[in-house]
Specification:
Blueprint: H1 3-19, H2 26-37, H3 46-49, H4 51-61, H5 63-72, H6 77-106, H7 112-131, H8 146-156, H9 166-176, H10 181-206, H11 213-244, H12 247-267
Helix pairs in contact: 1-2, 1-11, 2-7, 4-10, 4-11, 6-8, 6-10, 7-12, 8-9, 9-10, 10-11
Length: 268
């Protein structure tokens, strides 16, 4: 395992952890950074598998709430309702992701120009949404009705195009359907758990024959870096979006996308 691969894996892991739960598309950032670093991953598995670190970060931060929900399931209708809504929201991505997996990995993941364009377009969408005056009807994720959860789940499917952002799509979908900013971001965290875990298992299974020991070591480095940085993002994001909204992330997307396009034109 070359030193360059170790450094690249560490850098990409840090990028993954910093961006996974922000509405800026962590996959786009990791793929673009990997492209310009010359980082190669068999079957493009690295960008997907290191997301497990971000999953564990959520589990750690929300361990108390998850344990409380699990213990309340036998006696609390509200707890059972919440678990069902998260699973319903996960269902569209589970079905479409399994069917379109090969196309996503071999076509969309391999098109950096498209990723940059989607980053920019998503930035303008986020700016427009941030300036809208919503009248929220839902403030507690435990009370989200299942039709709302299903609609958010379909919005999440938009993130199968790299550059869209899974968290951004689910948050925007929730806001448009009547959720407030804080609960929209929090529901996105919980929906990430089955979604990212499912993507991890599917991608690992699909590429089990082409991964080597060295690939596993590189992925492990990225995983640890993503885990550590994601903890800090999850702890601070809810307060940030509640008070400041999403304009900062919109401009971030536009700048990164435009910079990527310029670099692709100049450097290839």
């Amino acid at each position: 395992m070359a030193d360059q691969s170790i450094i690249s894996a560490l850098v990409l892991g840090l990028i993954e952890g910093l961006t996974e739960f922000l509405p800026v598309s962590s996959t786009a950032h990791v793929l673009l950074a990997g492209h310009f670093l010359g980082f190669q991953s068999p079957g493009n598995t690295f960008a997907v598998l290191i997301q497990l670190g971000a999953i564990l970060a959520i589990l750690l931060v929300y361990a108390g709430k998850l344990l409380e929900i699990a213990m309340d399931i036998p006696t609390s209708r509200k707890a059972r309702h919440f678990v069902v809504t998260v699973l319903i929201a996960f269902l569209p991505a589970a079905v479409i992701g399994a069917l379109a997996h090969d196309f996503i990995k071999t076509v969309l993941f391999e098109t950096p120009m498209l990723i940059c364009i989607v980053l920019i377009l998503g930035g303008f969408v986020l700016l427009a949404v941030d300036r809208m005056k919503f009248q929220p009807k839902y403030h507690d994720i435990m009370d989200y009705p299942w039709p709302l959860a299903l609609k958010i789940g379909f919005f999440q499917c938009l993130a199968m195009v790299p550059g869209t952002s899974r968290s951004g799509a689910t948050i925007v979908g929730a806001l448009l359907m009547g959720a407030d900013k804080r609960s929209a971001a929090e529901f996105s965290f919980f929906l990430a758990m089955p979604t990212m875990l499912g993507a991890f298992v599917l991608d690992l299974y699909k590429n089990r024959d082409i991964l080597s020991f060295d690939d596993g070591a590189v992925i492990a480095i990225g995983f640890v870096a993503a885990f550590v940085t994601a903890i800090f993002v999850v702890r601070s994001l809810l307060d940030f979006v509640s008070s400041r909204g999403y304009a900062f992330f919109a401009y971030w997307r536009i700048i990164i996308g435009a910079t990527g396009l310029l670099a692709l034109v100049m450097l290839g």
